[in-house]
Design brief:
The complex is a heterodimer of chains A (202) and B (557). Chain A has a single domain, classed as Four Helix Bundle (Hemerythrin (Met), subunit A). Chain A contains 6 helices and no strands. The longest helix of chain A is centred in the middle third of the chain and has 32 residues. Chain A is flat, with a radius of gyration of 24 Å. Chain A starts with 23 loop residues before the first helix and ends with a helix. Chain B is built from 18 helices and no strands. Helix content of chain B is 68%, strand content 0%. Chain B has one domain: Cytochrome C Oxidase, Chain A (Up-down Bundle). Chain B starts with a helix and ends in a 10-residue tail after the last helix. Chain B is globular and about 70 Å long. In chain B, 55% of the residues are buried. Chain B is an all-alpha fold and 557 residues long. Classes of the chains: A mainly alpha (202), B mainly alpha (557). Chains A and B meet through helix 1 and helix 5 of A and helix 7, helix 8 and helix 9 of B.
């Protein structure tokens, strides 16, 4: 630190203006999604590790059916939430509310479909979480995902209530967008669960 | 913190009743108060975990001792390990992170203040839930009290058959709850550092402590989450009769080991990386030199973060993996030593040629450098698979990881205490008591953990509750136990120093160490809003620039 010349009035280089940093909501949500992905990864690993290791039936091939309709509903809800946000960005609140409600409806159909599937498995096929390793890993993985759908639906419904009260306006786009990130994450996880449980696991 | 409110209005303190002040603490969302609560909470559990350690050392001081029963001994080592990791080390790191990171990056609070408070209370109640097992763990079968399955709780010890009652439930539920707290704080920390830096603080001008905290928080997201998932599986096994770790139904006990150590090894780095942060702030200030090799320090930290996720199965060499697995994990374990070694050289480079001031924070940091090096070297020894086969599960391993956690992490934390206590309270800690604490603790540490390697080499397994005379272990165990007493006394002196100095210590002023980072620009303790005007920075040592306008750092960066 040897200063050769003393030239007191030094002006520092200008700071880049405007000083803009990433949005807090998005960074926070992406961090949460990272943690959630790690939780799901462990459950997926357990599922894959235990494929074919059950020492008694029923096996996935005997009892599981492809939930095509359910999957279509959930994945298209990602599209509808995208349209809803597009409408909100333009300030079209009626279209936003309609698409938002449609998203919730699609999510609810998915959840109802899962409930029916479980009812069928438990009462018609006799598969519970205690039956065998397949039951253990299947109910916990699909159940963990269904739990996330439920949490997502709760959040979405809160926004719908606010929207119906007329509180959600164009300037809230950023905040609603953060919630949509979570919903997209839940959908992406379903793609993984679908392939692991219903395609590879069968 | 009464004097904190004083900064706002001098008469506020007198008019507040005790209930009002407690209410203020319980409902606060101020990052500084939450940080202090994290630290205070951790210190309480440091004493509790320390008492558990002392009980074990009394039991092991003599052969054929029966100071405690085997059952109590099992509970002691389980609770000692769990407490020290989850309720001492992590909260203390989060506490210092909470307190200092917003100050270091020049902002007024964490990005999500309410999430911050929520996360703290989750951690606190997780700990209370686990400790409630001491009175509530008897359960239906009248068996068990505190958890006694070891801190890594290998299956099938946690199954209903081997762990009746509720002790294991308290263990897993306590960790799930506090784990969500850790994840919440980490989300908050990352968001604060990414989104709330003051104008001019680009990533390459950010204090290293902030860098270490963002890396540590990122690791928490990917390490604590697997533990949470695995704990959920244990709870499903225990409550709903699932079979994740039930070997009778074809389940695997080994997969629990994998899940646990995928958490467990990065966890070590989660704790050591903020410790590196302490050292990286303290060593330059007391060497009167800027940190040597800043970009390499950042790169090495990030490298450690990544590599540490690929080393977990070195805890499992004796389980019986194939030779490819053994080779892979031996190589990655040795590889993680490389960036760690780079850091040691950088600190040495910082000290080299500096005007070293041997104040207490610096003493602890220097001891850290030596001890952490030795801890790393025994780690490299253990990464060699054949060597590991001989010593896995022995006291050599116990000595190794205590060298890391006490000799590394705890020394860095003590350094951090002496360094930031003046900022937090506005009072200096007594240097005389500090040096007494330091020397007693150094002596105690080396008596305990240097000599603990030897019974390990002589074949003493960890977790045994007693041993017979004539195996050559007695003298070493006695030395180890005597060292534990030294450390206990040193910690009591430290606690006394903190209490005494709070009332009687010298006033610290804004900047007692003539330091260079932003937290020293504001008053001690800082006002609730931290900075009257948000600062603007032009280099990684903004306070140097202010003190030396004729020769500022930004000319060279």
């Amino acid at each position: 630190m040897s200063s050769t010349t003393l030239t007191p009035p030094l002006t520092p280089p200008p700071i880049e203006t405007p000083w803009v940093l990433p949005s807090r909501g998005k960074v926070g949500m992406f961090s949460l999604i990272a943690a959630e992905s790690a939780i799901f990864t462990i459950f997926v690993v357990a599922y894959v590790f235990y494929i074919g290791k059950s020492i008694s039936g029923p096996t996935p091939r005997e009892v599981l059916e492809l939930p095509i309709f359910n999957t279509v509903c959930l994945l298209s809800s990602s599209l509808t939430i995208h349209f809803a946000l597009g409408a909100l960005k333009k300030g079209n609140r009626a279209v936003f509310t309609a698409f938002w409600a449609l998203t919730i409806a699609l999510g609810a159909i998915f959840l109802f479909g899962t409930a029916r599937e479980w009812h069928h498995l438990i009462y018609d096929k006799g598969l519970t979480i205690q039956t065998n390793l397949f039951g253990t890993t299947y109910y916990s993985l699909v159940g963990l995902h269904a739990f996330h759908v439920t949490v997502g639906l709760f959040g979405l419904s809160l926004v719908l209530a606010f929207a119906l009260l007329g509180w959600v306006k164009q300037e809230h786009y950023g905040r609603v967008d953060v919630l949509s990130l979570y919903w997209h994450f839940v959908d992406v996880v379903w793609i993984v669960v679908f392939f692991v449980v219903y395609v590879a696991g069968r | 913190m009464s004097s904190e409110t004083m900064a706002l209005s001098p008469h506020a303190v007198e008019t507040q009743s005790l209930a009002e002040r407690l209410h203020g603490w319980a409902t606060t969302v101020d990052h500084k108060r939450i940080g202090v609560m994290y630290i205070g909470f951790a210190l309480i559990f440091l004493v509790i975990g320390g008492i558990e350690a002392i009980i074990m050392r009394i039991q092991l001081a003599l052969p054929n001792n029966d100071f405690v029963s085997p059952q109590v001994f099992n509970r002691m080592f389980t609770m000692h390990g769990t407490t020290m990791i989850f309720f001492v080390a992590m909260p203390i790191m989060f506490g210092f992170g909470n307190y200092t990171v917003p100050l270091l990056v020049g902002t007024r609070d964490m990005a999500f203040p309410r999430l911050n408070a929520f996360s703290f209370w989750l951690t606190a109640f997780g700990a209370l839930l686990m400790y409630f097992s001491f009175v509530g763990g008897f359960g239906l079968y009248g068996a068990g009290s505190a958890p006694d399955v070891g801190w890594f709780a290998y299956a099938p010890l946690t199954s209903k058959v081997f762990s009746p009652g509720h002790s294991s439930d308290f263990w897993s539920l306590g960790l799930i709850v506090s784990g969500f707290g850790s994840i919440g704080t980490s989300v908050n920390m990352i968001t604060t550092i990414v989104c709330s830096r003051c104008p001019g603080m680009t990533l390459n001008k950010m204090p290293l402590f902030a860098w270490m905290n963002i890396v540590m928080s990122g690791m928490v997201l990917f390490a604590i989450s697997p533990l949470t998932a695995a704990q959920i599986m244990i709870s499903l096994d225990r409550y709903l009769g699932a079979h994740f770790f039930d070997t009778q139904a074809g389940g695997s006990a080994v997969i629990w080991m994998h899940f646990f150590w995928i958490f467990g090894h990065p966890e070590v780095y989660i704790l050591i990386i903020p410790s590196f942060g302490f050292i990286s702030e303290i060593v330059p200030v007391f060497s009167r030199k800027p940190i040597f090799g800043y970009p390499i320090m950042v790169g090495a930290t990030v490298a450690i973060g990544f590599i540490s996720f690929s080393v977990w199965a070195h805890h499992m060499f004796t389980v019986g993996m194939n030779s490819w697995g053994n080779t892979f994990f031996a190589i990655t374990t040795m590889a993680v030593g490389v960036p760690t070694g780079i850091k040691i050289f950088n600190w040495l480079g910082t000290i080299w040629g500096g005007k070293i001031q041997f104040k207490t924070p610096m003493l602890f940091s220097l001891a850290f450098l030596f001890q952490f090096l030795i801890a790393g070297l025994t780690g490299i020894m253990l990464s060699s698979t054949p060597f590991n086969w001989q010593l896995s599960g022995s006291y050599f391993v116990v000595a190794h990881f205590h060298y890391v956690i006490v000799g590394g992490i705890l020394f860095a934390v003590f350094g951090g205490f002496y360094y930031w206590y003046p900022k937090i309270t506005g009072k200096m800690l007594s240097e005389r008591l500090g040096k007494l604490h330091f020397w007693l603790f150094v002596i105690g540490f080396h008596l305990t953990f240097d000599f603990m390697h030897i019974p390990g080499l002589l074949g003493m397994p960890r977790r045994i509750y007693t041993y017979e005379a004539g195996r050559g272990w007695e003298i070493w165990n006695q030395i180890v136990s005597v060292g534990a007493l030294f450390q206990g006394v040193a910690v009591l002196i430290f606690v006394f120093n903190m209490i005494w100095s709070y009332w009687k210590g010298k006033d610290a002023g804004c900047d007692p160490w003539d330091a260079w980072t932003l937290e020293w620009t504001t008053t001690s303790p800082p006002p609730e809003y931290n900075f009257a005007t948000i600062p603007t920075v032009h280099s990684s040592r903004p306070l140097w620039d202010l003190k030396h306008p004729e020769d500022p750092d930004w000319k060279y960066e």
